Every structure is written in C-alpha cells, then in structure tokens.
Amino acid sequence: MDSIYLIIIIVLLVLATLDLVVGVSNDAVNFLNSSIGSKVAPLWVILTVASLGVMIGVMFSSGMMEVARSGVFYPDKFTFPSIMTLFLAVMITDVILLDLFNTLGLPTSTTVSLVFELLGAAVAVALFTLWTSESGGQLSDYINSAKALAIISGIFISIAIAFVVGSIIMYISRLIFSFNYAKRFRYLGALWGGIALTAIIYFAIFKGLKGSVLVTPEMLNYLENHMGTALLYSLAGSTALMALLQHLFRVNILKVIVLAGTTALAMAFAGNDLVNFIGVFMAGYDSFRIAGEVAATGGNIETLYMDKLNEPVMANLPWLIGAGLIMILSLWFSKKSRSVTETEVNLARKGEGVERFSSSPLSRSMVRGSLTISKSINKIMPAPIKRFIDRQFTPVKTENGASFDLIRASVNLTVAALLISLGTSLKLPLSTTFVTFMVAMGTSLADRAWGRDSAVYRINGVLTVVAGWLMTALIAFTVALLIGLFLMWGGKITIAVMILLVGFMLYKSRRMHTRRKSREQQQQQVLSSEIQLVTSCNEDVRLLLNKTLSIYERMLQGLRNEDRKIVKKAMTDANELYEKFKDKRTYEVVPTLENMEINALDLEQEYVQLVDYSYEITKSLKAMTEATFHYIDNNHSAFTKEQIEELTMIYKILSEAFNRYNEMDMKGDYSQFAVVTNMRDVIIDLYQKLNKRQIKRVKAGESTTRNSILFLNLVNESKIITLQSSNLLKSHRNFKENYAKAGPDVNAKTLIQQVTLNL
Predict the structure, then answer these.
(1) What is the pLDDT of residue 525?
(2) What does the alpha-carbon distance between residue 111 and residue 603 come to, in Å, rounded to a whole number?
C-alpha cells in the first residue's frame, strides 16, 4: 500500500484532535451557559460535573458514527483513494470553519458543519470521478439525497421546536414560581426537582443506553418492556431525594437540578456530537484497515469500492475514551470556549449593560410589532389577570450578579437535554448548538429579559447568530467542495499545501482572538473605588500625552521623508488610541458612575470631562494620520521644507507643555500651570499665522490643491488638539485636587502622590 494513505490517516488523526479542541471550544456554550450565567457554583465545580457528563456521554455515541460514513453518500460508489480524499477534505474544512467561529466568539453548529462538509466533499469527489471516467453515471448515484434531506430538515426544524418549547415551559414556570420563588418553592420544589430529574434520567440515560457500549441487548430489552415502571420508580425516588435534601439537609435543590442538568446536557452533547469530531477519522481508519486487509491478499486497493462502510459500526472503546479526555482538557483550558459562552450569556442575561450587537432595521421592526401586539392584548385582558401576571414577572435582583436565576437555568438545561437526547435516541444528528441556543433565547423572551432598552440589540444578536448558522451550511458546503476538487486534482502536493494552510490560519486566528478579547475586557472595565478611579485617570492622561507626541512626531517624519510605512504605523496607533477612549466613553463612564462608592459630584464631573477631552484629542489624531497616510499612499506632491518646519513648531510647543505638565504632575505642584495656558494661546495665534502663510502660497501657485487641503486640515486638527489638551490638563489638575477634598482620609493628597509615583 502506498505510504500516502498512512500519511492521510495520521493527518486525519491530527485534524480530529484539533477538531475536538476547536469543536469543544465552540460547543462548550451548549452545556455551560446556564450554569455559568446563573453562577450556580464555582467554575471548577461546573467544569467538573460537565467533564463527568462528557466522559459518560462518549460511551453512548457509537450509534451516531454511521452519519459520517454513510449518512449523506453511498460509500459503495467510492473507491478507497477517493473516499480517503473525501474524508481529508471534510476534516480540513471543519477545523478551519470551527476555529473561525470560535475566534469571532459566535456559536455555530458542528453538526451542520459536518453534514454539509460531507455533502460538499462527496459532491466534489463524485463530480471529479464523473469528469475523469467514462462510467456514464450520474451525481444522484453517489449522494444519498433522501437521508441527507431528512438529516438537514431535522436540524433546522429543531430551531423552531426548541424556541417554542423553551418559551412555553419558561412562561408556565414563571407563572408558578415568580421571580421571588423562595416561599412557593419550599412546597413545590421537591416535586419540581423530581419531575426535572426524572425527565433527565429518562432521556439522557434510558434513551441514551440504546447507543452505548456499556450495556447488553438483554438489559436494553428489559428496560423497553418495563419503561413505565422504571419511570414511576424514578419519579418517586427523585422526588423523595429532593424532599430529603431540601427539608432535612437544607440544600438548595435548584442548584442540584442545574448541576444535574449540566451533566445530562454534557452527556447528550458528547453522545450526539462526538461523531462531528472523530466520526470522519474513525471512518477513514476503518477504510484504511479494510484496504490493508485487501492489499495483504494481493488485491488492488486503487479500484476497491468501500461497500463495507455500510455495515453497522463496531464501537472502539479506547478511541472513545481518548476522545473524551481531549474534550475534557479542551473544556478546562480553552480560552475560546469562554468567548462563545459569554456571547450566549450576554444575549440571555436579565437587565441592561454592554450590548455586543448593534440594532438593525429588522430587529427594530420586530420590536415595534411586538409592542403593538402587546398593547392590543393589554387592552382586552381583564385587570385582575394582568395584575397577577405582572406580579409574577416582577424581577428581583439576582444573587452574586448572576445573569439570570436558577429557575430559568433549570428550565434551560432540562428542556435542552430532553430535546437533544430524544434526537440522539432517534439517531437524528440534531444540532446541540441550535437546540440549546434557541431554548435559552426562548426562555429569555418568555422571562421578559429583553427590555425596551435592550430588545433591539438582543434580537439582532439572535438574528446574527441564526444567519451565521445558515451561512455555516453554505460556507461548509462550498469550501469542502472546493478543497475536495483541489485535492482530487493536485494529489500529494495539494495535501501538503492544505496542511500548511491550516496551520497558518490557526496561528492567525489565535492572534485575532487575543486582540478581540483584549478590547472586550477593556469595554467591560468598571471602576468602583476612589483608588481605581485616580489610578485609571492618571494612567490614561499620561498615556495620552505620550502617545499624542509620539504619533505627531512620526506623522511629521513620514511627511518629511515621504515614508508610507511610518505614517501607517502612526495611523494604526492613532486608531487604537481612538478606539480605547471611544470604548471608555461608551461602556465605562455610566457604569462607573453607577458603581462608585463615593458621593463627590465635582470629582465625578471632572472624570466625565477627562474622558470626553481625551476622546476628542484621539479623534483629531485619527483624522490627521488617516489623511496623511492617504496623501502619501496616493503619491501626491511632497510637503515643502517650509510647511514641515511650520508643523514642527506646533509639535515643539506641544512637547514642551506636555513635558512641563508631567513634571508638575509628578511633584503634585501645579503652581506653574500657566505654561499650559501659554501653550494654548501661542498655538492659537500660530494657527492664524500659518493659515495666512498657506493662503499666500496658494495665491502664488506654490502649493497644489491636495497639498493645501491637507496642510490646512493638519493645522486645524492641531488647533483642536491644543484646545482639548488644555482642557484635559486643567480637568486633570482639578480632578486630583477635588479628590484630595473628597478623599475619606486626611492623607488623601499623599495617596494621590503615591499613586502617581507608582505609575
């Protein structure tokens, strides 16, 4: 047998391992979001119970392995070389696609990815085979269109079912318990917990056992014949256990339900989705083993058709355990899994805050329509019923700043586990992402988590994720089709090219994810104490002054030498600085004012002004560097020596004033603050003179139109920077002086000096 096939098997194994990592990073949101969002327990406890569920779930997954080998195509129509190429194209596409969605922090469906990748790669291999042979066959001879359609329709129907079921059950649950559920839960909690645990046990264990390698056919037959009795015993035992824990041991049984639901959902995820990660490798490994047996007897594997892949899958326990261990390690250590989880928790949380998504015409129209319908219903609803419903849905503050309470978390997990486990028992590869996400969104809607100030953003977020799912199908099919054709056409060389491409894309996506997370952390910063406020403002002012001088200097150097690269670097730094203070203005200021532990209006006012002045300065820096870069990038005429010297005069004045202020700030002595005022007056006067000089150059024909426009813009933006800098430094001085007055201790001024020195 040609060694290329052994190489392909090794590559498939490596890609399957990577796929487990990136796949779990994306799908961790499916079973972690309810526990993390409700803060039911410390993170290590949540991850521990989820890991237990994953390891049990992988034992239940063998029945789903058939999807990867014969779910969407007829393996008996493909030769050994072509089917190995098909599997390789699928795995390459899957790793790239899932890692891209993880980097963007968007949940996607690993099931949809796999199905459409298999479909695209199968179509590619079939088309290439038809084009290069004279078999006279048709594409329909290769593709199992009926089964593929059933799988795809089941996946997308699950979206509507999950949303509707989640909404209905959450609405009923909230009517029963309300947000202030402690009193009523004391009497109904044991029954509620018994029903939830019975449902989880039935679907996640009794139904899941059908595909498990852990039980015998005799045990399965016994359970099938005595299911009613087993359920009755389960309900009685679960209810009794919940009552015992609640009333005797004083355990919050909602936490038990949520953690049990997390375990069950992790089991359902592993049982249903493991095929998405290692199913293709297992099919390739079996194909390689079958071909090896044929080659050992002298058969020709180049013309060997893979009809044996139609036979039932024999589960390989060591492979399942190995896959489970990789999934658990990814669950604990993957940073990208946190990003995807945060996206769903953010969309489902109760109350206002930083919204990741913007609004759209469609989301605004949907909210307006919903408000109209709501007003119409309120007009005809009897007042007592309306008061009762409003009372049940009156929110209370969640514990520990959780995004939602334990009632909603238990509904999320129970309903999602039921639906996914039902799909698994029917051998339908339902998307765990679709089901859990839409259940969470349905319960959010029913729970009135989307208020007037957040609805348009949340709805647009849901629409964005759903659109991403639809795009997943199209992208997965198209990319797998193209890669499949490329591999079939190029042979061994293209395999090496694609492997290098995968490595490069994973490296780039990691850097992109790091930058995105850094900005998100910056957006979520909220200051809550005096020392944090003083430290942050001092750091920001010092950073802004230094960066302003650095960017201005490089811009002048780029103009002087017509150096495109140095101006581009200055433009990049200016844009980053602008985004930083734009985010502070948008996301930090109001939450900080709400969370401040002090009540000092003057201090808080100066803080708001500091952020505003900083933002205006960075906006001018951004405008200057972008205009300069485009000017040089378009190879326009160089600035004259006289123009460069005039702009340098502004830089030197700014530099002198900023450096003098830094010295005053370090000493805490602002007696020489007049230097800042003098800077402002000198540059304002210089602004008028430079404008007149440029006008004279224009009149004399010494300057081109574009040259004059840029020069005047730079002078004008420099004037704005001067005015805003003067305001900034004045506010910073007042800020520190006001803190000394508002500080809790007599030594507040000393504290300021210590903070300044520590910078």
Answers:
(1) 62
(2) 54
Q: Where are the alpha helices (DSSP H) in 403-454?
A: 406-425, 432-446
pLDDT in tens, 18-31: 878 777 766 666 67
CA distance 472 to 437: 16
Label residue 94 by pLDDT band (50, 70, 90): confident
294 in the same domain as 365: yes
222-226: long-range contacts at Cβ-Cβ below 8 A with a sequence spacing of 24 or more?
A: none
Single pTM value for the model: 0.69
**Residue (of 630, 622, 650, 626) closest to 544 by Cα position:** 622
Compute the Cα dihedral for 631, 635, 640, 641 and give only its sign.
positive
Last residue of a domain, one of 467, 502, 520: 520
Percentage of the chain surpassing pLDDT 70? 84
* Residue at a domain's end among 497, 520, 543: 520
**Tokens 């202030």 — which residue?**
180
Torsion sign, CA atoms 493, 496, 502, 507: negative
Predicted local confidence at residue 364, as pLDDT? 86
Which residues have C-beta within 8 Å of that of residue 8, sequence separation ≥ 6? 84, 87, 88, 284, 288, 495
| pLDDT tens, position by position, 238-257 | 999 999 999 888 899 999 98
Overall domain count for the chain: 2
Could you report the per-residue pLDDT of 439-464, keeping only the tens digit for each? Answer: 988 898 899 887 777 788 888 888 88
> Which range of residues forms the domain containing residue 609?
525-758
CA distance 115 to 111: 6
Q: Which residue has the tokens 């996640």?
A: 204
Under 8 Å between Cβ of 535 and 739? no
In this structure, are 90 and 36 located in the same domain? yes
